[in-house]
Design goal:
Structural class: alpha+beta
Order of helices and strands: HHHEEEEHHHHHEEHEEEEHHHHH
Number of domains: 2
Strand content: 5-15%
Strand order of the largest sheet: 4-3-2-1-7-8-9-10
Shape: elongated
Number of helices: 14
Radius of gyration: 25 Å
Protein name: Propeptide PepSY amd peptidase M4
Keywords: Membrane, Transmembrane, Transmembrane helix
Helix content: 40-55%
Oligomer: single chain
Number of strands: 10
């Protein structure tokens, strides 16, 4: 390929997908810190002290079960870090999902909140745009953005010769386009590794989704159902009461003394236990056990070190994509570089259009650009409506759920800022296109 062809690939993929790529990168950037943002805005999540927990996750589970016998505990998670409470998700009699928080030192239920929180908001928006138009369609639209991102990275390596010598090269002048271009190049060099990580893991998510939907329908290596490669046998009818949860968890710990248990729940009758066991870059579900609740038998014991290359990588993609493998430190690094990637998604489009204008040439693919941006705006408007409908589903009797004031203010401010950025970018872009049209 010639240099001009490389430039066209780099520029046009960014122009056509820049706005949607910005929205996905921008929301994903905040998703990396969503748990911490919930901690900041919801007092119920904050523990009374940062001391070592005095009660186990199983004990916290039983506290909630006894306090809310009419509700079902669906999922229990250990504190994310010192200063966090245990987080237990319950399903109420009315079918509503809520978070209950248990202090790990005192065992007191510190409070509850809607299942809709900052973490859930950014997860659903970043991954599927709240299911706008169609959930499957929206998810594939997001996954497919990995391809133009990867094309942009590869083409940039060819276009920006000797890039490894320009980590501190910033040319500043009185021309705005030149300054934006210089910042774009410098940001691209420093974030090259990050862009590759995000692009490659996103391509993996695209492949996983296609494999599940079009090939085998398997979403897990082991599980209770046809969705698993290795399905567990269904539990036989029990004639006795299940063993106490604390005893079941103790048996799991006995089978895996190396496991730091981070979550547990009942999956089709089986008790499922997840955790970390000192392996590098794996999500919690890479290490898991299934226990029969009536006998305490460990039916399956999965160790991350025993996984095949395919399933090991499947459990590594998430830590790499979201940067949660080293606690707050790695999350902050991912947050900063996520902001940089978001900036590049918009600045690249601006540079291309300004460059065409400065050359006083008709804008290449002008109609395609307008259609791409208009389609993106319509999709984002549909996601706003879908997000509103999703929020109503978390409330009671068709009402929006009650969120902590600080959570509401944060989400509102983020939405206003995001809409303002999109509106300003569209205004500048179409003003340039309009100027170009008048000039010819």
């Amino acid at each position: 390929m010639t240099a001009k062809q490389w430039f066209n690939w780099h520029s046009l993929t960014g122009v056509w997908t820049g706005l949607l790529l910005f929205v996905i990168c921008w929301s994903g950037t905040f998703a990396t810190l969503s748990y911490e943002l919930d901690w900041l805005t919801n007092p119920a999540i904050r523990a009374s002290s940062s001391q070592t927990p005095q009660l186990s996750l199983a004990e916290a589970y039983q506290i909630v079960s006894e306090a809310r016998p009419q509700d079902r505990v669906a999922f229990a998670s250990a504190p994310l870090a010192p200063g966090f409470n245990y987080d237990l998700v319950i399903e109420t009699q009315a079918g509503q999902w809520r978070h209950l928080y248990v202090d790990p030192v005192s065992g007191v239920i510190a409070g509850d909140s809607s299942y809709l929180n900052i973490q859930r908001f950014f997860r659903d928006f970043h991954r599927v745009l709240f299911g706008a138009v169609n959930r499957t369609l929206a998810s594939y639209l997001v996954f497919l953005l990995a391809i133009p991102l990867l094309i942009s990275v590869i083409s940039a390596l060819y276009l920006y010769r000797c890039w490894w010598q320009k980590f501190f090269t910033l040319n500043w002048s009185r021309q705005r386009r030149a300054n934006v271009a210089s910042l774009h190049k410098l940001a691209g060099i420093w974030s090259l590794w990050f862009s590759l990580v995000i692009a490659l893991t996103s391509v993996w998510y695209l492949y996983e989704a296609f494999r599940v939907d079009a090939i085998d329908g398997k979403v897990s290596l082991v599980g209770q159902g046809s969705y698993a490669v290795q399905p567990l046998p269904p539990l036989s009818g029990a004639i006795t009461e299940p063993l106490p949860l604390t005893e079941l968890v103790a048996r799991a710990q006995q089978a895996r003394p190396d496991l730091q248990i981070t979550s547990l729940w009942f999956d089709s009758g089986y008790l499922q236990v997840h955790g970390q066991a000192g392996h590098l870059l794996v999500r919690d579900r890479a290490n898991k056990l299934y226990l029969a609740p009536y006998t305490g038998e460990v039916v399956h014991n999965q160790n991350a070190s025993d996984l095949s290359l395919y399933w090991r990588w499947s459990d590594t993609a998430d830590p790499l994509h979201f940067g949660d493998f080293a606690g707050l430190t790695s999350k902050l690094i991912w947050f900063v570089f996520g902001l940089i990637l978001s900036f590049m998604a918009l600045s690249g489009s601006y540079m291309y259009v300004k460059r065409q204008q400065s050359k006083r040439q008709p804008l290449a693919y002008r109609r395609t650009l307008i259609l791409a941006v208009a389609g993106t705006v319509l999709m984002l408007l549909a996601s706003i409506w879908a997000g509103y409908q999703a929020a109503l589903s978390y409330g009671v009797a068709g009402q929006l759920p009650a969120l902590p004031v600080a959570t509401t203010l944060f989400l509102g401010a983020w939405l206003v800022l995001t809409v303002a950025i999109i509106a300003y970018w569209c205004f500048k872009l179409f003003s340039v296109i309009g100027y170009e049209r008048r000039s010819f």
